[in-house]
Amino acid sequence: MKLVLLTSFIVLLSCPCFSQIDSTLLRQAPANSSDTLLNMDAVYNRPFLSIGRLPVSLGGYVEANWQHLGTDGVTEGHQFQMRRFTLFVASTIYDRLKFLSEVEFEDGTKEINIEFAALDMEFHPLLNMRGGIILNPIGAFNQNHDGPKWEFIDRPISSTQMLPATWSNVGFGIYGKQSKQDFMFAYEAYLTNGFNDKIINNSEGRTSLSAAKENEERFEENFNGLPLVTLKAAVSHSKVAEIGLSYMGGVYNKFEEDGLLLNKKYRVDVFAVDMNTVIKITGTYINTEFALIHVEIPPTYSQQYGSRQYGGFLDIVQPFYKKPILGFNESILNISCRLEYVDWNMARFKETNTNIANHVYAIVPSISWRISSETVLRLNYRYQWQADLLGNPYSKTAGFQAGFSSYF
Amino acid sequence: MKKILTIVLLLSLSIHSCTKLQPKPPKDEEILDGPVEGLSYEEQVQFLKGDIAFNDDIFTVETGLGPLFVSTSCGSCHAGDGKGHPFTTLTRFGQHDSTGNKFLHLGGPQLQNRAIPGYIPEQIPSGATYSKIIPPANTGLGYLEAVTDADILALADPDDINGDGISGRPNWTIPATYLDIPVNSISNNGKYIGRFGKKAAAFNLLHQTVLAYNQDMGITSIYEPYDTYDQLEKDPEVGNQTIHDVVFYLQTLKTPRQRNTDNENVEEGKRLFIQSDCAKCHIPELKTGYSKIEALSFKTFHPYTDMLLHDMGEGLDDGYTEGSALSSEWRTPALWGMGLSKNSQGGTYYLLHDGRATSIHQAIMLHGGEATSSRNKYSSLSIEQRNQIEKFLESL
User: Fold this and answer.
1) Which of A122, A267, B106, B201 could form a disulfide bond with B323, CB atoms 3.0-4.6 angstroms apart?
2) What is the mean pLDDT of residues A356-370?
3) How many CB atoms sit inside 10 A of residue B208's CB?
């Protein structure tokens, strides 16, 4: 054993080593920075590597961070987190026939998900068919969530805990895009497997669409046999903004099994609006998304599971320094701020006719260094107020987070 | 180079100041949760486990919730270990006399007014009387459990021998078969003193805990194995260790600490409180006997209760009872922590057994029966003096 270790040590010392290898086999296709792109294009708008004659392109991103947060004087101390390691595999099978997939490892290997694995067929720019595991296009974040594109380490609360972030399902649909002068119009329409009763039967103690992600069977079996409908329309003007309107809805509970009626049908309906723009004069980037959720709750169930939820976020990103830093010629320093709010339960107590509180809001200032368009170092400070169901004094959480996110 | 230094400086500052820019903990006297002083490391670990089970475990259909229930977790009825809110008010039904509940076969004694999807919640059976009950605070329960029977009986005066119009008596109950009777317990024809619950019908904290799991959340245990929906015996849905952790947590929650003790109004309010004979039932000071938990043994504490039943008059008589208590009799509630009640009740007071009083003044004025004389003394005070009593009660 000692001999093996000694030999290894000598071999290592004798090797001419480089800290990084820039292989000529790897050719990087950078992300498209064209302003004709919409949020719906995010799955393709990523840097990919082509390796020699390999018929597939590879890509991915990774993000890790340190954080020190405290809630009401209690802290879990220094936490080092490997939040995501995501791999993309894409292939042009034939002209206008493409396959793209995204596999994500979250929190190490705690969650491993195929977020996207779909075949796209283009019949006409206004008529494409997509089938497989798709990201339901509700809001913009669900489609356009790659870490390196954001200045904030945490994903928005409304997009992760209210709307399920990276909510993907097996299904089919169509989409299309048409441009005219400075305008771009796009639509998407999908039928997929749907939610399940975890929405109101979960350990969160509140209505939670994201709890439905716990059902891993959804890639194999639709919980109640009825499709979830997801529709999105987006319009953009190259000098103004992109605005998206989306809807997702369906029955979420199991109302029938083996031909036996078990319950009445209960629906979930989600409406979202998203907008992003760049103010040309200042270069300020503004990105926002708000959603309203309506869930039919059995009237005899607990009011802690609200029938209406509302929330969203507003990101303002201001570049303030665009010069080489430490030899990174494309460096940009951004100062940003996120404001976010979610009301988990928009209702009043039957017993007292007082407001059911159960809401959260947060402010997250940030400084980020974009080393390149594909890599960002971020320093965030989060301050968050959480009200419980009854509206007792806020539980306050605050602290720093620092980390990186990078495509590779 | 300057920029690099700036970045390094920013990072260093953020790491250095990471705790300074975080929310400060509330003052110890401003919150009700937290352990008693003097727990060993092992006891702290068990306290923590109980805390998690009590406050964080939310039951779902898969983990046993219901089918009929009132609440999905212990913590939802006792936010911050304080008093409950009308949203989680419990309804008990039965009959007006103390001959035993005649409606147990119809789902009594507690109404489960909520149900998981596909099930119909309970209704109060025809002919039953009922009472609504606001969940109490959990603070200092271990101290109350450790008061000796002899000390409680010493405060009792069931025949009002001293002629002061106050005749407190214990609720003599038959303990469930799974309960261990402490060595020094005093028996009265096979019955023992009940201590917990608005009518003191629960013998100890284990009894109270397993009943709450069963009747509030529809969770069966080895102690209370019958489902509230169909009254059939089920496999335990909560483990024994979890129950014992929760019981330990309740036993070792700290006592509330009085605030503003130097305030003149508070001091005067206390004097008036005693002068009005309020302290004849709301006994300021009790002491514990021996407890297996060393931190609770032989301690003096200030709960403002005598743990006895008192006739509170027609106004508070809901026509429902438990154990040997009469329908107009209620166990003197501990007043400690009263000033912090609003922090667990959504910013509003919901006082008395059913939360009908939304101010301390209102609660006092609704006292009747044995407390009529004290109430009258209070109402004859000047507004300033009444405010002083309220200031005192808010300081507890």
Assistant:
1) B201
2) 96
3) 22
DSSP one-letter code for B274: H
Interface check for B86 against chain A (CB to CB < 8 A): the answer is yes
Alpha helical stretches, state H, B189-275: 205-217, 240-251, 264-275
Q: Which residue range is the domain that position B152 belongs to?
A: 37-395
Distance between CA atoms of A179 and B287, rounded to whole angstroms? 82
Contact flag B117-A301 (C-beta cutoff 8 Å): yes
Residue B119 lies in a domain: yes
Mean pLDDT of chain B: 92
Per the CB < 8 Å rule, is A351 touching B26? no
3 state SS of B376? helix
- Locate B353 and state its tokens: 């057994």
The residue type of B9 is L
B60 touches chain A (CB under 8 A): yes
Please give the share of chain B, as a percent, with pLDDT higher than 90: 82
Partner residue facing B343 (CB), from A325, A392, A400: A392
pLDDT tens for each residue of A87-119: 999 998 888 899 999 999 988 878 888 999 999
Task: Name the residue ranges covered by the structural domains of chain A.
Answer: 123-407
Q: d(Cα A207, Cα A196) in Å, to the nearest integer?
A: 12
**Token output for A12:** 């290592």
Binding-face residues of B in 297-316 toward A, CB within 8 A: none
Residue of B nearest to A300 (CA): B114
CATH ID of A123-407, from 2.40.160, 3.30.1460, 2.40.50, 2.60.40: 2.40.160
pLDDT category of residue A56 using cuts at 50, 70 and 90: confident
Residues of chain A positioned with their CB less than 8 A from the CB of B1 = none
The count of structural domains within chain B is: 1
Q: Which pLDDT belongs to residue A44?
A: 79
Judging contacts by C-beta atoms under 8 Å, the chain A residues touching residue B18 are 68, 399-400
- CA-to-CA distance for A207 and A358, rounded, in angstroms? 11
Measured in residues, chain A has a length of: 408
- Which residue, among B43, B73, B79, has the nearest Cα to B238 in the 3D structure? B73
Residue B7 lies in a domain: no
What is the spatial distance between Cα B88 and Cα B71, in angstroms, rounded to a whole number? 7
- B5 close contact with A: CB closer than 8 A: no
Task: Give me the pLDDT at residue A313, please.
Answer: 97
Is B26 part of any domain? Answer: no
Q: Is B61 on the interface with A (CB under 8 A)?
A: yes
Contacts from A227-230 at CB under 8 Å and sequence distance 24+?
A: A227/A171, A227/A191, A227/A192, A227/A193, A227/A194, A228/A136, A228/A169, A228/A171, A228/A191, A228/A192, A228/A193, A228/A194, A228/A195, A229/A189, A229/A190, A229/A191, A230/A136, A230/A137, A230/A138, A230/A173, A230/A188, A230/A189, A230/A190, A230/A192
Average pLDDT of the residues in A320-341: 94
